[in-house]
Amino acid sequence: MNLNTNFEDNTYLIESLKQGDEKAYSHLIEKFHKKLFIYAFSLTNNKPLAKDVLQNVFLNVWIFRDKLDSNLSINNFLYTATYNEFIRQYWKNQSTKDLENKYAQALNEVINETDEKTIETLMSIVTQEIQNLPKKCKKVFLLSKEDGLTNMEISEYLEISIKTVEAHISKAYCIIRKKIGKKTSSILFLLFPNNKTS
């Protein structure tokens, strides 16, 4: 019995993967790539997206190989992983679309009421106000808006309580609102368009 024939055995294949056997990984890709691609394409109806889905599935199998369960059917596992990755990609794309729509809406709201020069002035004022924030307040605010971290992530990263994080963010908002009023949210979104919490 040669090595590739051994890999036809579900348990042996998974155990080999768990041990970091690159030949087992190559066998896995060679055996399942074509039919999984067909399945991914049937879900996405988009070849580039189907390729992305499949690439992530196989990459994750390798990265998290030590967590594979030898008792599971590798066939069923891969199909489930492909479906789950499709769902993840779908919602990611959907979130991006929602974000783009939100950005366009914020831009339109400001433009409808404000000329371009005033918008630039407002953005400049907000940028300056952020720079003038107390040191800790500024750090928390930028971690939230610029880096897109959640309050929980900021709390863990800075080793402070969530209430402290919330207090710093509220303080920053109050300071900015005093300067530019009701346009605060729209201007912040224009400054930090990739942040979902703006």
The Cα radius of gyration reads: 24 Å
**Helical residues, percent:** over 70%
Instruction: Give the strand tally.
Output: 0
Mean pLDDT: 82
SSE class: mainly alpha
Shape: elongated
Low-confidence stretches: none
Largest sheet descriptor: none
Beta fraction: under 5%
Number of helices: 10
The run of helices and strands is HHHHHHHHHH
N- and C-termini, Cα separation: 61 Å
Keywords: Sigma factor, Transcription, Transcription regulation
Domain RNA polymerase sigma-70 region: 28-94
Protein name: Sigma-70 family RNA polymerase sigma factor
Family: Belongs to the sigma-70 factor family. ECF subfamily.
Keywords:
198 residues, mainly alpha, 10 helices
Characterize the structure shown.
- This protein has 198 residues and is mainly α.
- 79% of the residues lie in helices and 0% in strands.
- The chain is built from ten helices and no strands.
- It has helices at residues 3-7, 10-18, 22-44, 47-63, 74-113, 116-131, 135-145, 151-158, 162-180, 184-191.
- The protein starts with a helix and ends in a 7-residue tail after the last helix.
- Residues 28-94 form the RNA polymerase sigma-70 region domain.
- It holds the Pfam family Sigma70_r4_2.
Give the SSE map:
Elements lengths: L2 H5 L2 H9 L3 H23 L2 H17 L10 H40 L2 H16 L3 H11 L5 H8 L3 H19 L3 H8 L7
Quick structural gist:
The chain has 198 residues and is mainly α. 79% of the residues lie in helices and 0% in strands. The chain has 10 helices and no strands.
